[in-house]
């Protein structure tokens, strides 16, 4: 469905405003679809993101600063997300033996198992993007990279 129909607005200031609104709207649309997929697993999008980062680091622990650097949503409160994941026993926190000011965060076996179960969603997290050809997906990615440049 076209953005005009989605938000019931027929006129835009210019093509740039229309593109901006479309990017923001589509980003939120994708987030909502993913959140619906993740709800049965009891994790939020930022928690899933942190778990994936930790799985990529495994068995090497991560720090909160590393998580912040790698998170998709830079506005998320990484410390609070780790608190919630620790309460669910999906991660552990321990003081770093070589630097007492640093806390090491490590994904647990339970966290790894949860991600493996969530991997069974297959391309479910790619809702909407699979309607693009590989060439269109590459073009979209290149255009988004260009916007951020």
UniProtKB/TrEMBL annotation:
The keyword Ribonucleoprotein does not apply. Gene3D superfamilies: Winged helix-like DNA-binding domain superfamily/Winged helix DNA-binding domain (1.10.10.10). Keywords: DNA-binding, Transcription, Transcription regulation. One of its GO terms (molecular function) is DNA-binding transcription factor activity. It holds the Pfam family MarR. Residues 1-149 form the HTH marR-type domain. The keyword Transcription regulation applies. One of its GO terms (biological process) is response to stress. It comes from the Bacteria. InterPro entries: HTH_MarR-typ (IPR000835), MarR/SlyA-like (IPR039422), Tscrpt_reg_MarR-type_CS (IPR023187), WH-like_DNA-bd_sf (IPR036388), WH_DNA-bd_sf (IPR036390). PANTHER family: HTH-TYPE TRANSCRIPTIONAL REPRESSOR YETL (PTHR33164:SF43), TRANSCRIPTIONAL REGULATOR, MARR FAMILY (PTHR33164). This is Transcriptional regulator.
